[in-house]
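Design a sequence for this backbone.
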C-alpha cells in the first residue's frame, strides 16, 4: 500500500472515532425520545431542552468546585425531575387530547425553555470548566483524548444500566406492560401515571448526562444548545426505529459517523444537512426505521 493510502485510512479511522463519540451523545438523547414514544406515543420535542438543563446544572456544580462524577449524577437527577414536573403540569392534562395537541404543546414547551433560558442564564455562551485534565493518546497516526474515552465508556455504562432496568426489574416489566397495552396494565394494578413519569425521568436523565458530557468535550454551553442536537437525536430515533431502544442506539451511532465522514471527506457545512437528508430518505424507503416493522397506523 502507498503511503498516501495508509494516511487516508488513518483519516478514516479518525473520522469514525469522532463519529462514535458524537453518535454516543445522539444515542443518549435519542433514548429519551424513543422511551417516551414507546410508552405514550408522544414525540417530545422539548426533550432537547432537558439536555441543555443538564449541561447547565453540571456547569454550575463544577464551577462551584464539585468533582465531575457527582456533578454528572446530580445533573441527571435534576434534568429528570424537571421532566417529571413538565409531564405532570403540561403533558398529563392533554394526554387524551390527540397527538396534534401534544405535538404543538411539546414545541411550545421547547420554545419556552429556550427563551426562558436566555432570559435567566444570559444568551452568551459560557466556557465549561475543565473538570478533567485533557490527555491525548496516540495509536499510529490516530489520536484519541481521554474525554472521548469518558464519553464512550459513560454511554456504554448508562445503556447497560438501561437494559438491566427495562429487562430485569419490576418497574421495567411495568414499563414494558404499559407500552404494550396501557389499559390492560391499569387493569392489572399498574399505576401507569407513575410509570409514565418514571419514563420521562429516565429519558431526561440520560439527556442531562449527554449535556454534561458535551460541555466537557466542547468546553461551552448556552441556552439554545438543545435545539439542533435535539432534532438530530429525533432523526436518530426515527432512523433506528422510534419506540425501539436498541434502534435509538444504532441510529445515534450511524448518524454521528455519517456526519463526521461528510465533514472529513466532503464539505463541513453539510454536517447538519446530512441528518435531515437521512430523515427524508428513511421516511421515503423505510418509515419504520432500521429495526422497526412497517405497519399502518392511524394518526
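Sequence:
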Amino acid at each position: 500500500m502507498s503511503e498516501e493510502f495508509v494516511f487516508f485510512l488513518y483519516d478514516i479511522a479518525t473520522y469514525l472515532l469522532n463519529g462514535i463519540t458524537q453518535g454516543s451523545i445522539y444515542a443518549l438523547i435519542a433514548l429519551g425520545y424513543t422511551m417516551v414514544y414507546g410508552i405514550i406515543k408522544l414525540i417530545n420535542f422539548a426533550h432537547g431542552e432537558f439536555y441543555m438543563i443538564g449541561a447547565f446544572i453540571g456547569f454550575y456544580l463544577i464551577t462551584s468546585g464539585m468533582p465531575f462524577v457527582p456533578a454528572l449524577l446530580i445533573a441527571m437527577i435534576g434534568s429528570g425531575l424537571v421532566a417529571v414536573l413538565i409531564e405532570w403540569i403540561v403533558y398529563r392534562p392533554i394526554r387524551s387530547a390527540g397527538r396534534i395537541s401534544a405535538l404543538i404543546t411539546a414545541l411550545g414547551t421547547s420554545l419556552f425553555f429556550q427563551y426562558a433560558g436566555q432570559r435567566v442564564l444570559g444568551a452568551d455562551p459560557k466556557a465549561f470548566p475543565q473538570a478533567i485534565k485533557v490527555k491525548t493518546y496516540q495509536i499510529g497516526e490516530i489520536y484519541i483524548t481521554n474525554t472521548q474515552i469518558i464519553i464512550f465508556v459513560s454511554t456504554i455504562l448508562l445503556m447497560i444500566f438501561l437494559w438491566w432496568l427495562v429487562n430485569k426489574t419490576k418497574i421495567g416489566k411495568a414499563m414494558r406492560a404499559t407500552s404494550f397495552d396501557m389499559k390492560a396494565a391499569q387493569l392489572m394494578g399498574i399505576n401507569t401515571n407513575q410509570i409514565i413519569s418514571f419514563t420521562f425521568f429516565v429519558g431526561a436523565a440520560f439527556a442531562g448526562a449527554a449535556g454534561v458530557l458535551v460541555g466537557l468535550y466542547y468546553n461551552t454551553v448556552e441556552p439554545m444548545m438543545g435545539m439542533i442536537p435535539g432534532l438530530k437525536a429525533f432523526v436518530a430515533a426515527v432512523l433506528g426505529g422510534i419506540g425501539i431502544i436498541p434502534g435509538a442506539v444504532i441510529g445515534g451511532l450511524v448518524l454521528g459517523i455519517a456526519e463526521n465522514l461528510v465533514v472529513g471527506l466532503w464539505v463541513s457545512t453539510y454536517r447538519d444537512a446530512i441528518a435531515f437528508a437521512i430523515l427524508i430518505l428513511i421516511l421515503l424507503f423505510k418509515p419504520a426505521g432500521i429495526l422497526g416493522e412497517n405497519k399502518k397506523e392511524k394518526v
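The longest strand covers residues 136-139.
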